[in-house]
């Protein structure tokens, strides 16, 4: 007997309904139509051969079968998120200039960016936590890399000492993102680039705070109130070159800036 193949879209819809407790709430969260979600749930139930939800007065309640597969479904979700995040990291780093230069990886963490780095540059990987830097070392390939323990909000580097800077998932983590952004601007040489991959609110979109209930947010200690446009307004030396939506319906964004 062949093994069933699950459409990830069906699993994503299942988790949204499970978290929201109703088809209407899940549709709002995913930006989808309620009949579409209802069809997804019906298709998944048909594949599994069991009912997943029971209707209640206020929405739907998960059956024992739904609760039994929830952990496995979330494991699928986590794997999909890691895969997509890795692809976006790779796309971002591929835009580093071809000419060799000195590149700061601010908040390098456990080194998830390292496998995707072009080999021609000299990299400085900075993190506040020494244990994180130790975990990053096994990911270092055959390129020039030096780990440095330090605070991204008070960089231990001279003015105009880097050609490029990479800020992947750091601005929404540090307590004072404006200080971090100002420091990056300070250590960057004129003409240098800043690559950003992070999550930001947009002005007039407070509804994004509802993503607090999203499993992606529950697993990460992060700020949910960072508005990129406000940060950029504080550093007129940086010019926006592109701003593209990435994960979570555009909540995560890929941004490139250049210092004038």
Describe what you observe in this structure:
The chain is elongated. About 5% of the residues have low confidence. Helix 1 crosses helix 2 and helix 1 crosses helix 4. The protein is 36% helix and 22% strand. The chain contains eight helices and nine strands. With 260 residues, the protein is an alpha/beta fold. It has two domains: 66 residues, Arc Repressor Mutant, subunit A (Orthogonal Bundle); 165 residues, Rossmann fold. A hairpin with a 6-residue loop joins strand 8 and strand 9. The strands form two sheets. Strands 5-4-3-6-7-9-8 form a seven-stranded mixed sheet. It has a two-stranded antiparallel ribbon with strand order 1-2.
Short characterization:
The protein is an alpha/beta fold and 260 residues long. It has helices at 8-20, 23-30, 34-48, 64-93, 130-136, 177-187, 215-218, 228-233; strands at residues 53-55, 60-62, 102-106, 122-127, 144-149, 162-168, 188-199, 238-245, 252-259. The strands form 2 sheets. It has a 7-stranded mixed beta sheet. A two-stranded antiparallel sheet has the order 1-2.
Q: Key terms for this structure?
A:
260 residues, alpha/beta, Arc Repressor Mutant, subunit A, Rossmann fold, two-stranded antiparallel sheet, elongated
Q: What is the rounded distance between the termini?
A: 63 Å
Q: Decide which structural class fits the backbone.
A: alpha/beta
Strand order of the largest sheet: 5-4-3-6-7-9-8
- The CATH topology of the largest domain is Rossmann fold
Binned strand content: 15-25%
Write the CATH homologous superfamily of the largest domain.
Vaccinia Virus protein VP39
Please, how many helices? 8
Mean pLDDT: 85
Counted up, domains total: 2
Specify the oligomeric state.
single chain
Q: How many beta strands in the DSSP annotation?
A: 9
Given as residue ranges, the uncertain stretches (5+ residues, pLDDT < 50) are 207-220
The CATH architecture designation of the largest domain is 3-Layer(aba) Sandwich
Main sheet attributes: strand count, strand direction, barrel closure: 7 strands, mixed
Residues in helices, as a percent range: 25-40%
């Amino acid at each position: 007997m062949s093994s069933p193949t699950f459409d990830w879209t069906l699993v994503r819809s299942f988790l949204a309904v499970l978290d929201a407790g109703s088809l209407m709430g899940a549709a709002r969260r995913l930006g989808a139509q309620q009949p579409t979600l209802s069809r997804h749930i019906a298709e998944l139930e048909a594949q599994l051969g069991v009912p997943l939800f029971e209707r209640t007065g206020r929405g739907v309640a998960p059956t024992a079968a739904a609760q039994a597969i929830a952990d496995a479904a979330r494991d699928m979700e986590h794997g999909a998120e890691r895969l997509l995040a890795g692809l976006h990291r790779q796309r971002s780093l591929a835009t580093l200039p071809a000419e060799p230069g000195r590149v700061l990886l601010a908040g390098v963490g456990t080194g998830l960016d390292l496998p995707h780095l072009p080999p021609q540059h000299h990299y400085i990987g900075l993190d506040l936590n020494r244990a994180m830097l130790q975990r990053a070392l096994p990911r270092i390939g055959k390129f020039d890399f030096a780990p440095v323990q330090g605070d991204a909000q008070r960089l231990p580097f001279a003015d105009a000492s880097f050609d490029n800077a990479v800020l992947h998932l750091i601005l929404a983590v540090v307590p004072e993102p404006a200080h971090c952004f100002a420091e990056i601007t300070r250590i960057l040489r004129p003409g240098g680039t800043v690559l950003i991959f992070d999550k930001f609110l947009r002005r007039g979109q407070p509804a994004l705070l509802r993503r607090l209930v999203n499993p992606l947010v529950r697993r990460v200690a992060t700020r949910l109130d960072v508005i990129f446009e406000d940060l950029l307004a504080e550093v007129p030396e940086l010019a926006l070159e592109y701003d593209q939506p990435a994960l979570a319906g555009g909540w995560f964004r890929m941004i490139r800036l250049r210092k004038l």
